[in-house]
Amino acid sequence: MLQETELIERAKGGSIGAFTRLVEAYRERLFRFLLTRCQSHADAEDALQETFVNAYRYLYSYRAEWRFSTWIYRIAIRNASSQRSPEVREAPELADESNGPLEACIGEQSRRNIWLAAKRVLNEDTYAAMWLRYVEDMSINDIAVALERTESWAKVNLLRGRKALAAEITRVDAAHPEDIACG
After folding, report:
1. Yes or no: is domain 101-179 CATH 1.10.10.10?
2. What is the reported pLDDT for 135?
3. Pairwise CA distance, residues 46 & 51, whole Å
4. Residue 94 — very low, low, confident or very high, per pLDDT cuts 50/70/90?
5. pTM of the prediction?
6. In Å, how far are 11, 33, 38, 48 from 92, measured between CA atoms?
7. Which of 36, 45, 47, 59 is spaced 20 to 30 A from 171 at the CA atom?
């Protein structure tokens, strides 16, 4: 199996196969991310396609000092920004098959509730920073680069986002303790 850096170099050299493998490596993760930033499933698909078209078009400008994931998420964020909708959307379901059905259902509901709460209380950039950190497991530095902010901004906004999210979840739980449901 070729390393990502080798795939990038081959793709820069014109290898469609190498670029296709990069697309396959990032397609699902980018699509999940774009679903949270676009108004509809179709808009997310369009933004994903445009992300890969732009990545291919500008691959020559990619520099190895950046992580490729940071570079391609930056492109995706730019493509999704014009399609961003103010309405609240559910985050994609993430299966938890390691537990029984009840635990999986509760875990799934909790994840959806957290990302729905995040949509309500966080601004677009802080939401993106939280997603990149906790879903995509990006470093603070990579988040700062992807969002074109400083590392200090990323740290502060992740902290503020966690606090705002914790306060919102506490508020909702206190207001509606009976709303623990399994969809």
Report:
1. yes
2. 85
3. 8
4. very low
5. 0.62
6. 30, 9, 12, 15
7. 36
